[in-house]
Write a structure and sequence with these properties.
The protein has two helices and 16 strands. It is mostly beta strands. The termini are far apart.
């Protein structure tokens, strides 16, 4: 198995498998590659996370060394076609890895195209282009008791115009008070033609790969922040592959060996524009 890109969105997954690599005969380490994870929401600021791929080898690699894979000294800039803004690197514990590049000097606008450029001290150069689609508004939420669970609830969002042909959506969630910010909602990927009447989308709890007792449901009393992002076909392809990877990586009979879809030139990863609608709901009894 090579050190193929798992996306540093799935960085925790690699952390989980590194300690057992010495038992599997992976061979020599490959040269680390730059990984870009970046997005710009409509009405919000760009966020970029940079890191290097982790090679799975026959040598034992402590998970504590994963911090060395974060790229902290790059020049990261975003241009909207009229001006270029250089992003500032800073520690941010709400992301993993906990270091991001961002700015408060540029907000995403639907319909506009944004070019990302990354230049690292070792000479690595990467760039990508993304356009923000028009958002689809969240009309309302519904909370339904989960089968056989008194204190757990299934959450649904109703999105206006979501059933339009050629539309793609990605759902993200955050529980108020949790360690991380918005996480990809489990199975929170849809196309307009696969949604039922009313544009109802299931909203599941976000999942990290270190959770052994994961449930897609929310608990009574949770305040849930929801982001429904309208995305383009490139983003849909990436997130479709990501969800497949999450499921297959837990099955030892089906190892994941293929890179995820990337729209970045000169690196692995993604730079996406999200036409995002935001909402929140308190899960009541």
């Amino acid at each position: 198995m090579n050190h193929s890109f798992k996306s540093l969105v799935a960085f925790a997954l690699l952390a989980a498998v590194l300690p057992v690599a010495c038992e599997r005969g992976f061979g020599d380490a490959a040269e680390p590659q730059l990984v870009v994870e970046g997005w710009i929401d409509s009405g919000r600021f760009p966020v970029v996370v940079l890191s290097r791929t982790v090679s799975i080898t026959d040598d034992y690699q402590p998970t504590g060394q994963l911090a060395d894979c974060v790229e902290r000294w790059a020049r990261v800039a975003v241009s909207d076609g009229e001006r270029e803004v250089v992003l500032v690197g800073m520690a941010d514990e709400s992301h993993f890895p906990p270091y991001v590049y961002t700015t408060s000097d540029l907000r995403g606008e639907p319909g506009r195209t944004y070019r990302l450029t990354v230049d690292c001290p070792d000479g690595t150069h990467a760039e990508a282009v993304a356009t923000i689609p028009e958002p689809a508004a969240i009309d309302s939420f519904a909370v339904v008791q989960a089968d056989g669970a008194d204190t757990l609830r299934q959450l649904y969002a109703y999105v206006a115009g979501a059933r339009a042909a050629g539309c793609y959506y990605r759902v993200f969630t955050q529980v108020l008070g949790s360690r991380y910010g918005y996480l990809p909602s489990y199975l929170g990927l849809a196309t307009g033609d696969m949604l039922p009447a009313g544009g109802r989308m299931p909203v599941n709890r976000g999942r990290t790969n270190l959770e052994s007792d994961y449930t897609p449901y929310f608990s009574v009393g949770d305040t849930v922040m929801v982001k429904v992002a309208r995305i383009d076909s490139a983003a849909y392809s990436f997130w479709r592959g990501y969800e497949d990877m999450i499921e297959l990586s837990r099955n030892p009979l089906f190892p994941v060996t293929n890179n995820l879809h990337s729209n970045v030139s000169g690196a692995l990863g993604y730079w996406f524009g999200y036409g995002s609608a935001f909402g929140s709901v308190i899960v009541r009894p």
